[in-house]
Amino acid sequence: MSIVVVAEKPSVGRDIARVLKCRERGEGFIKGEEYTVTWAVGHLVQQVEPDELDEKYKKWRMDDLPILPDVIPVKVIPKTRSQFTVIKKLITAPDCDEVVCATDAGREGEYIFRLIYDKAGCKRPVKRLWISSMTDEAIKEGFDKIKPQKEYDGLYRSAVCRSRADWLVGMNASRAFTLRFDALLSVGRVQTPTLAILVKRLIERRDFVPKQYAIVNAEFGDEKKTAYSGQYVGEKGETQIEDIKKAEGIAARVKGKTGVVRSLESKEKSEIAPQLFDLTALQREANKRLGFTAQKTLKVAQSLYEQYKLLTYPRTDSRYLSHDIQPRIRKTMELLPEEYRQYLPIAQKMGMPVSYKRIFDDAKVSDHHALIPTLKRAELSTLPNDERALYDIVVRRFLAAFAPPLVYESWRIDTDVDGDLFKTTGRIVKDEGWRAIENSAAARKKKDADEEQELALPKIGEGDRFLARAASVKKDATKPPAPHTDASLLLFMEQAGRDCEDDVLRESMRQSGLGTPATRAAVIERLIDVGYAVRKGKTIEATEKGEALINVAPQDITSPETTGKWELALNKIANGSGSEDRFMEGIRRLTSYLVDYAKSAKDIAIPEELRRGKAKGKRRTASGVKMLEGALCPICGAPVQENDKAFGCSKWREGCGFTIWKNALERGGGPAITAPIVKLLLDKKEVRGSTGLIALSGERLSFTKAGEQAPSAFSAIRKTNIQK
Questions:
Q1: 102: left (phi > 0), else alpha (psi -120 to 50), else beta?
Q2: Which residues form the domain of 351?
Q3: Average pLDDT rounded to a whole number, residues 139-153
Q4: Residue of 8, 119, 271, 435 with fewest CB within 10 Å of its CB?
Q5: pLDDT per residue over 267-276, tens digit each?
Q6: The CA-based dihedral angle spanning residues 524, 364, 377, 130, taken in that order and rounded to the nearest 10 degrees
């Protein structure tokens, strides 16, 4: 029996080949006695572009929209066609009895394989390898428990609907809004509502008006030593005093007087450990602790999964483990590197009760369980710095999850100084519990301004008297909401729709959000790549271009509720409870609505520098400008560049005004100026064709029709301010 295994990446293919004892290397595959392992390089097949459906779509025209094909064909990606050919030959060969899908165990991995399989015209039976770890043991176990491909048909149908929906909405809305507003505006079902989150924060910060206030603090003790400190509290419980002079008066009148402890309250409380990581939670934590972007965290986690085999599947959306993992937990702990062994007594103190629902819950594990270390022992000295730092975060969270709660006493002391009340709040830690594990990773940072401070209190009882030995006024002002970071933006994406007014939708969207853990990092990077957002240090802010798009786009595409509904529908399709036809019909209606909206949208002011002209079917750089290869400015010698409307000197910022407008001769009956014409004009000074002669002479461009002696069209060429 001959079986062909198709992995998603070469590195994964090599690991599987080693486990299956395949040793004979070929071009794009590794062969063994029973198995042949080959691999994709990510996507090898993709949906066609609109102009590949019909030549007329090369030119962007509003009259052609919406483009709503019944079927969106797929094509082999030219860049990686050779590897597709290798796979096709192997899986359609007469001696191939069976194919194993070993692409990443998720929606996108399923989509990658099915497109290759279908495009190759393969009819062989297929089985599915589904694993959450790349260790040899996990691969062997996966082959022992291999399943029929048909069990994942719902996941594939969900992936197809997602891909077609993105094509229909993205292609149509982007063209419609670009044409309507004469600015290159990219629209997408996930990226646009994510951009709306950034724009909302931009506006909140821009419109924010700070208010001045003061806080009065007093130190209580004797003349030589402070025992504790307190903060002034007004009659309504307020601590911020808008009248600065009033605050200074309070500080002056209490200083040197005796305070009386009016009340003393303490309660024992506990705080259980944070949950295990899914990808989004890990990205947020790594951004806070290590400054990693979401994309970098995903890349490093993928490296720890694929290359080093130290983490389970990172693109998971679950923070729970299934009960069948339970027997491996203690062994995983005991195989951790030596520096973590000191924490095992803490982590194993409670045991692992099956009823511990915050960790083990089969109902909350979908495709993959939470991200945890594998059974492979790590050699920390061999890991790159980034991989080691991220591994450390995951290991400590894994150990902490099984540790006892943090136990502390929560205190509040009210001290009365001649009618002025000062409160002291804080906690006294009795048992560090899980925090002894996570704290040692890095200095613990305060979570928020209201978190209780840890106290070292003297013996205090009600009625005790202490001198207000010092009193101070701290002047401050209210702060605008902080700009988003990767961590905060990921949280908003994950919790999108949680504040919607529809109770049913809000409850259902607890299972969803903007995008998936596997795609959110790419969405953030996409916003930056197209110029809608920009990184400023650790923060991410919307640009003027991003704000312009949100100003013109309807709520149906900027609202996270729309995308949340999509993800819920896609999940239902994946688990067999949703209708593909109903979903796609809704997408078609939305697409038509967005095009109609763009056509009738009212004019708004879009800055001239953001305008790029109407797209001509060719992709341009983010700035809408590309260099004209081999063409030099005849005035200053700098390279010539092309935008949507003209050819001109690339040193225009420095004063060179050499410009040839593409429509320079059209008003007089001449042809449009193209790149080949400009190159010939700069080289030969004239271009002769069937319609006539175009000539460049000094600072004048002219066109003489065929058979005529005198030019019929003229255009002036701008002069330069640069001294030769």
A1: alpha
A2: 279-401
A3: 94
A4: 271
A5: 999 999 999 9
A6: -80
Q: What is the mean pLDDT of residues 123-128?
A: 97
Are 340 and 440 found together in one domain? no
Over residues 180-220, the pLDDT tens digits come to 988 888 899 889 999 999 999 999 999 999 999 999 999 99
Number of structural domains found in the chain: 5
Cis (ω within 30 of 0) for the bond into 66?
Answer: yes
How long is the chain? 724
Annotated catalytic residue within 111, 117, 156, 313: 313
> Residue holding tokens 């095992």?
344
- Supply the pLDDT for residue 702: 84
Mean pLDDT of the chain: 87
The reported pTM is: 0.76
CA-based nearest residue to 332, from 130, 138, 143, 140? 138
Burial code (b: 16+ CB inside 10 Å, e: under 16) for 646-669 equals bbbbbbbeeebebbbbbebbeeee
Residue 584: how many other CB atoms lie within 10 Å: 15
List, in order, residues 6 or more apart from 560 with CB less than 8 Å away: 193, 196, 197, 493, 496, 497, 513, 514
C-alpha span between 238 and 221 (Å, rounded): 24
- The verdict on whether 313 is a catalytic residue reads yes
CA R_g for the chain: 33
Same domain, 200 and 231: no
Domain of 457, CATH number, reads 2.70.20.10
pLDDT band at residue 455 using 50, 70 and 90 as cut-offs: low
Nearest C-alpha neighbor of 631 from the set 606, 649, 653:
649
**Among 100, 117, 145, which residue terminates a domain?**
145
Q: Which of 560, 559, 561, 579 is nearest to 571 (CA)?
A: 579
